[in-house]
Amino acid sequence: MQKNWFYLGLLLGTFAFFSVVANVSQTHAKEPVKVIYDTDMGNDIDDVFALAMLNNLEKRGEIDFLAITLTKDNKYAAPYCQMVDAFYDNPNVPIGAVKDSGVETFDGKFLRQSLEGKDEDGNLMFPFFDLANDKTEYYEATALLRKTLAEQEDGSVVIAQVGFSTNLARLLDSPADEYSPLNGRELAAKKVKYLVAMAGNYVEHQLEYNVVKDVPSAQKVFSEWPTPIYASGFEVGREILMDGAMMNNDYEYVKYHPVKEAFRLYRDSLDSKQCTWDLTTILFAARQDRGYFDLSESGEIIVDKDGFTTFEPKADGKAKYFKVSREQIVRIQEAFSWLCSEKL
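The chain above was modelled as a monomer; its predicted structure follows.
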């Protein structure tokens, strides 16, 4: 009898333990981060890595990939994003294309080339997306931003801007429409949790591509954006490199991988290294509290008429910029390696 009481006590204790574990797990379970990806896809290869990360993070349940908006004014940019999403079995992410911006209209080195690329037998490398028969009617970027934000809960959306500020400046200036009675500034203030942007340089007095290509829009966004801003400067992604060995080894689970092919086309070799500017914003958006990056004090980001960025500390400022140590760089590189190449 005493033995039976012992086993009963052990059973009840075990049940109580796992009940506590389950309750703790449920308590600490996080809702996926809602992310809009605003990109100049086609100008550099890091945008493609970032898009791969977004798709894999959604498969992991870490983010809810709401939309892609494009600031590169090229007809292949939207179909290219559609093709990459389709590769990851995620073809229904809405895509919005910028219209008549005049900013970077050229094809670049991998957009059209990837979409039209053929294997040794003359077949499309990515036959699941046929550019010649693509009938998709892509949204206009500002309209998609308004539609997407209007559909989300208040204060729930993270915008990751890794291209020019064109779309977000136009959003700020947008009037009420069929999607929302709020103007763009009001809509952003109500729906956006924060903006994380790959823009500027906060260590050297140096021009940065994303800012300088559309200076008026960058001035508007960094001075008028109504929510917190986290900026990943040029100096951060420059120090965090993708090793060429990764390209030769980690994408071999398919014959043709869009990330690997884009890298080959853009870098002209699979053995070079690549800076990871845009990827930093995605990692922060998905895992803000994991300690991958340190942050500056609060302040304001000032964009001058030539496109130079300066940071002015201010106690009530809405902006902070990223900092990284050597130890953090190692952790970030490992995270990028897994999140870009894994097949779930």
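The radius of gyration is 22 Å.
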